[in-house]
Amino acid sequence: MGQITLSGNPPVAVALRRSARARRLSLRLSALDGRVTLTVPKGVPEREALSFLREKETWLRGHLDAREAPVGVGIGAHLPVEGVTREVRPVSGRSVRLEGEAILVPGAEAQVPARLRAWLRERARMRLAEAADRHSGALGRPYSKLTLRDTRSRWGSCTSEGGLMFSWRLVMAPPEVLDYVAAHEVAHLAEMNHSPAFWSVVERLYGEWRPQRTWLRKNGAALHSYRFGD
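== YgjP-like metallopeptidase domain-containing protein ==
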């Protein structure tokens, strides 16, 4: 994969992806991290791809401007935890804790982002393990392991060996959204697809799941806008 730059103010980096399977030129803007990818079928010259990119420039810049701006996490920042936005405040002691509408974080100010990220990951692990245990028990199919990552392209996944993976940023979403994603991935233990049978399993485990999927589609990008010193 190469990279080209769309000139202008500001310039836009575009990843150029050659694909033998693609049948037409396509431009994709990731809703999670803002990466722009231009897919070019095999045999299409680069000048044609650049012409296509310039035709789409107005659309692309409009969507880039509408993206969530990055939010640096530190003292005074406002951060959602389980669907409730709270202010990050300093405190003495050793442990991060919630108190009313505040997240109290001890230690030097420079360490606050890393401390918060570690605390959120651990909280996410507890919430997701509880949900996955509950749903897999109801399904009657155990999972083999549970891992957390900071994935940009998906909120969760399930391997053919029964391993579950989730984005730890789900702990910032409302609890019912996290629970839906856990049910979704556990359902793959029975149906490794997105067929009607799969969605029937999701509904049996969770109930009406569509509002939670809609919430993620509308608000998921905002959860990725928070930067923890990385």
